[in-house]
Design goal:
4-stranded antiparallel beta sheet; 19 strands; 22% strand; 7-stranded mixed beta sheet
Length: 510
């Protein structure tokens, strides 16, 4: 009753203004999945290092959510919404994929709805007296719920059009002196991002380079030429994997490297291949081949079923052996004879301390794998304890994962502690006899490149008449800080004795 009496006592013009709003703003809550954006060229995943928020925590736009680590840098991810964090979808230490959700945020959205009350006295508002207009004017000028007064949009907010995210000079990272210099020269700093300084900071030299290009008639970055210059260079940023290769090759210059090349005669091994291929265990054969084998007339399991063999990797089925798994098996035998080549360098804890070598009980060998997304080195662990057939299955499985786009190799395939020897099968790519492999820090104490097997005429065999033999070129590079040249040559000769006399594997119980 008091409210009705107060409304009756109000001037007609005020009541008319109260009813003339065409719409009102209501809010509703919704859940937004915040996806990890593309934070750099070639980066497809990042590790979540630390979360700055917890579930049920209130956040505002630009508040830090988490810190992620890529191969290039550590980046702080900020919130694109005002709201409440409902769920963290990626735990600390786990890998987050670009384009996949990091967390769920509950936000309030403003929704415009038509007012049920129509304007019944529009003309009365126009006939309002001056005192009333002066009183209601301040009320009409303040509209806190209006979207026109919203804050600066977040660059990762998917609801904001890209045209609203244009960078201005005020948003550019630059020192006051550089801003003053740019204003004097009439240069918009937004045209120069990212700069050449740390974290993309625009430096004075960036402004001077821009002015030099303009003086020479080079079009500004924001004004690209509409005509295509067929002779112009195309600048491409290195992808994640290739940039890692860049850093590894630069670090390789810190290692004094010793090289050695020789040739292995694999004619005897070639003669055994037909028998080895005819007896590939059933678990490694493709389903089409394993089903075609006839069942034995008398089953071995008629008295007591034998234990089931370990299954082959998911993509490790094959129907024909190659030389590579046998070469790896024989290499592991030589590594067992030479503990130095089962050793990895342990960096000293303090600069004054001496480095040490950790000798492993088994032969761990890394494989150089060329994939559509770059060069990877997955590791075959405990090669000495695996059969030739099992090694062939693991090699085929790794090769399949590497051919996927993006690469499907997992951290389990590429452990932080890789092999003590790396193997590059260059003969499988080109008609190569020898190569000069490069050893990188953390890549073990040696690396070997295996060329393509070729039939040649060996004049030193056959009582001076010569024989046709199958030979393959072998090229080694060792870390000369820990491996002597004579030691490398003697080790390679030990491996050669296993390769050229594969009958030794039978006596060794393989």
């Amino acid at each position: 009753m008091l409210l009705l009496r107060s409304l009756r006592s109000c001037p007609q013009s005020f009541i008319s203004r109260f009813h003339t709003s065409a719409a009102y703003w209501a809010s509703r809550k919704s859940l937004k999945r915040f996806n990890l954006a593309d934070i750099g060229e070639g980066i497809t995943e990042c590790e979540v290092i630390k979360w700055s928020v917890k579930p049920s925590a209130a956040v505002q736009v630009f508040d830090p959510l988490c810190e992620v680590q890529s191969d290039k840098a550590s980046v702080e991810i900020t919130s694109p919404f005002d709201g409440v964090v409902k769920e963290l979808l990626v735990n600390e230490g786990e890998i987050a994929k670009v384009g996949k959700a990091l967390c769920v945020i509950e936000v309030e959205e403003d929704v415009a709805e038509d007012s049920d009350a129509s304007t019944t006295e529009p003309e009365a508002a126009q006939q309002s007296t001056q005192p009333v207009s002066s009183v209601s004017s301040p009320e009409s000028s303040v509209q806190p719920d209006s979207p026109s007064l919203s804050r600066r949009p977040h660059p990762l907010d998917p609801n904001v059009p890209r045209t609203a995210l244009q960078t201005t000079s005020a948003d550019v990272l630059a020192t006051p002196s550089v801003r003053h210099f740019a204003r004097q020269k009439g240069v918009d700093l937004a045209l120069l991002i990212p700069g050449s300084g740390k974290a993309g900071r625009v430096e004075k030299r960036d402004v001077e380079a821009y002015l030099a290009n303009v003086t020479q008639g080079t079009p500004a970055p924001s004004q690209p030429s509409t005509t295509t210059d067929e002779g112009a260079d195309t600048v491409i940023e290195l992808g994640r994997t290739r940039y890692n290769m860049w850093k590894a090759m630069v670090k390789s210059l810190e290692i004094p490297q010793f090289g050695y090349s020789t040739t292995f005669d694999i004619t005897t091994l070639h003669d055994y291949m037909a028998v080895l291929n005819a007896h590939i265990p059933a678990q490694f054969l493709p389903p089409s081949h394993s089903s075609s084998r006839p069942n034995p007339a008398i089953s071995p399991s008629s008295f007591y079923p034998p234990p089931s063999p370990p299954p082959a990797p998911e993509f490790g089925h094959y129907s024909r052996l190659t030389y590579l798994p046998i070469l790896l098996k024989t290499l592991s035998k030589a590594m067992l004879e030479w503990p130095l080549f089962r050793a990895s360098i342990v960096a000293p804890a303090a600069p004054a301390d001496k480095p040490t070598l950790a000798i492993r009980p088994h032969a761990d060998i890394s494989i150089a794998l060329s994939t559509p997304t770059g060069l990877y080195t997955p590791t075959l662990q405990r090669v000495d304890a695996a059969s030739v057939y099992a090694l062939a299955a693991r090699l085929r499985h790794l090769s399949h994962l590497g051919r996927q786009v993006p690469c499907a190799l997992t951290p389990a395939d590429m452990p932080r502690r890789g092999g003590t020897i790396s193997v590059s099968n260059v003969g499988g790519i080109g008609d190569a006899d020898h190569a000069s492999p490069v050893l990188v820090p953390g890549g073990g104490v040696a690396i070997v490149a295996i060329g393509r097997a070729k039939w040649v005429w060996d004049v030193n065999r056959g009582d001076g008449k010569g024989e046709r033999r199958l030979k393959v070129g072998i090229s080694w590079t060792a870390d000369h800080r820990v491996v002597e040249g004579a030691e490398l040559i003697a080790f390679v000769e030990a491996w050669k004795a296993w390769v050229e006399h594969p009958q030794r594997l039978i006596a060794d119980g393989v």
